[in-house]
């Protein structure tokens, strides 16, 4: 089997027995272990004299490098996270564009391709991840790298009307076409991509699904990312760690709990969620004192302005809800602005009566899937899920909500907390079936199968 080379913005070597690694890292790590390979990308460090480091663990070689301060500012903090991320999540209002940052983005992609080139063998296949690396294949082609290169977009692909808000959208999109296979989370994303090809790029969408634009032929497919449901279930069953005292009354009676876990990001709908929870307690006062909401939201991208703003806003809303509604023996909302280890998180999912996953826009949302997988089949909790999460396509047995509908979300919470056991079980079984049918291995294996079977190697020179 040809060697696999995974390229992603961030790389963190996984050492055996490290329980904190997330599902995605573990899934990719397994694929690399099977065929042997390289995992290449940024190590998260910013330094004056960027260095490349190489570490081999088993048959995986981790090749990581630092970024210089200008590269970090322009490529990562700038174009990736202050332009692409908001626009791809339909938040044009939060996006900014700076030509210098776009140049930095292209420059870092070219630099990464150059650093990778000497490590490649002719029959390696490359799997590139996410929006930081859209022009990576074009940069490789420019260096004469003819290997098969696939790309997976973890976030939504926006409608052309939205994408075209990025001033160099055409240049960006042109560079996208040098991949052999482009994978999306949902059919909606794939259709939006095809729409751009035919309406903006003057390209063609063939009946057999093959695409062409700017003189390149390539394919696009839908590969919804999954979790390992039975592994999560086993972890949840065997969890013996700290039990939260949240949800306990002073007499030791257990209250019902709701749980949410998100990176602190404006796309996750945290403010709207807190407001809906407040509305729920106002509208259904019988739940007061009987329910507690735990929100885990570790800070992310804290040096991007929009993230500082959402953090402040959230602190204000959380303070407002608790200030207004708390009592001497009851705190309705527990907002933890920090990360917990994965085992504790899975343990918390298991005990919570409701999983509340209400992003305004999300490529997939793994938390929704992890929450379901962690449930006790004999007495499962209820997933309340935003229609704007990619996961809503597969998890249609969740209570589907519109996060912009404050009262609608409040009503869904009331319904979730009152749902009879039989209905909860039915919905849970339905969702577990969906999780097993499209787990993390299936995501990885189908993508790599399709990439491996794509056409012949090619040597082309990309134009800027
Ligand atoms: C992107 C796309 C897509 C969260 N807090 C803690 C923690 N987590 C873990 C969760 C989950 C992962 O991080 C988050 O994944 P999501 O899918 O929810 O969201 P993004 O980070 O935005 O991921 C998304 C995903 O890529 C994969 O394709 O689904 O749409 O935006 O696994 O459990 N883990 C630990 N402590 C925390 O505090 N240990």
From TrEMBL:
Pathway: Glycan biosynthesis; trehalose biosynthesis. It catalyses: D-glucose 6-phosphate + UDP-alpha-D-glucose = alpha,alpha-trehalose 6-phosphate + UDP + H(+). Keywords: Glycosyltransferase, Transferase. GO terms for biological process: trehalose biosynthetic process. One of its GO terms (molecular function) is alpha,alpha-trehalose-phosphate synthase (UDP-forming) activity. Its EC number is 2.4.1.15. Belongs to the glycosyltransferase 20 family. Homotetramer. This is Alpha,alpha-trehalose-phosphate synthase. It comes from Azotobacter chroococcum NCIMB 8003.
